[in-house]
UniProtKB/TrEMBL annotation:
PANTHER family: HIGH-AFFINITY ZINC UPTAKE SYSTEM PROTEIN ZNUA, HIGH-AFFINITY ZINC UPTAKE SYSTEM PROTEIN ZNUA-RELATED
Family per record: Belongs to the bacterial solute-binding protein 9 family.
Keywords tagged on the record: Disulfide bond, Ion transport, Metal-binding, Periplasm, Signal, Transport, Zinc, Zinc transport
One Pfam family recorded for the sequence: ZnuA
GO biological process terms on file: zinc ion transport
GO cellular component: periplasmic space
Record protein name field: High-affinity zinc uptake system protein ZnuA
Function in brief: Part of the ATP-binding cassette (ABC) transport system ZnuABC involved in zinc import. Binds zinc with high affinity and specificity and delivers it to the membrane permease for translocation into the cytoplasm.
Source species taxonomy: Bacteria, Pseudomonadati, Pseudomonadota, Gammaproteobacteria, Aeromonadales
Keyword Disulfide bond attached: yes
Gene Ontology MF annotations: metal ion binding
């Protein structure tokens, strides 16, 4: 009897602590989550490869995954409007545009970083649907400074929910920040060279990255991928390319319309790809620095 009790006690000690399961809406958030949960759990990503948060429709299996997750991480209603309703009433949701200290850029105030995330509205259900460019720029995963705040918010949320693994989350956060700083420094010279080149982007998504590295596009085809570029915009871009004011146009894997090729034709401008969500990168603890390097290499092709 005593041996049985001892075996039971040993088994209980050796059983792993049930960790909080993390579900992120998009892959880049999964990259950061994987770094923070390394050695504890593996995050799941809701949107499949090739899907865009701009116009995604949830399936019944997606709704189940959202309800079963220990922590759901999303940018906010400014990007994933389709998530607002399913998240209503869920206890553990991390809305990143509402995180205190998040440096956010407001399109209404083009002067720069205009306000910070607000801790008071955890779910951020403010009635905005879809993807708006009149307010906050939601592409926060593309800014190294914003990525640091995302990682901190994840570590804090997970530690509060899963205190048994708090030391691991904190250690992982330190590792993530170190690797991020190293990568940031390594790619800065690449980006300095690109900043002197003129280029257009397909849609207005890279502001956080560009401001961080002192870069600036000459313009964009469309504010948001679900909006078709206007005829006037296409004429203006064509003229700029013919006058050699830009040498490259960046399309995107999930949105590379023929309109880009036709506008660039016979201008000498190169059509290149920028992958804003890291489609080809595998989710893992080192994925975010890999994502940064891939983005830097893509930009650097414009020379």
């Amino acid at each position: 009897m005593r041996i049985l009790a001892l075996l039971t006690a040993l088994l209980m000690v050796s059983l792993p602590v049930r960790a909080t399961t993390v579900l992120t809406t998009i892959k880049p958030l999964g990259f950061i989550a994987a770094a923070i949960t390394d050695g504890v759990s593996e995050p799941q990503v809701l949107l499949p490869t090739g899907a865009s948060p701009h116009d995604f429709s949830l399936r019944p299996s997606d709704i189940r995954a959202i309800k079963q997750a220990g922590l759901v991480v999303w940018v906010g209603p400014e990007l994933e409007g389709f998530m607002s309703k399913p998240l209503t009433g869920l206890p553990h949701v991390l809305t990143l545009t509402r995180v205190k200290g998040m440096p956010l850029f407001d399109y209404a105030n083009q002067a720069g970083e205009s306000h910070e995330g607000d801790a008071h509205d955890e779910h951020g259900h403010d009635g905005h649907e879809g993807h708006h460019h009149e307010g906050v720029d939601p592409h926060i995963w593309l800014g190294p400074d914003q990525a640091r705040v995302i990682a901190q918010a994840l570590a804090d949320s997970l530690s509060a929910q899963d205190p048994a693994n708090e030391p691991r989350y904190k250690a992982n956060l330190l590792t993530f920040n170190r690797k991020l700083a190293e990568k940031e420094q390594a790619i800065a010279p690449q980006m300095k060279a690109v900043s002197q080149q003129g280029y257009f982007v397909f849609h207005e998504a890279y502001g956080y990255w560009e401001r961080h590295y002192g870069m600036s596009s000459r313009g964009h085809f469309t504010v948001s991928p679900e909006r078709r570029p206007g005829a006037r915009t296409l004429v203006d871009i064509r003229h700029a390319l013919e006058e050699k004011k830009a040498s490259c146009i960046f399309a995107e894997p999930q949105f590379s319309p023929a309109v880009i090729e036709s506008v660039a034709r016979n201008t000498g401008a190169k059509v290149l790809l920028l992958d804003e969500v890291g489609e080809e990168i595998k989710v893992g603890p080192d994925a975010y620095p890999q994502f940064m390097q891939q983005l830097a290499d893509s930009f650097a092709q414009c020379r």
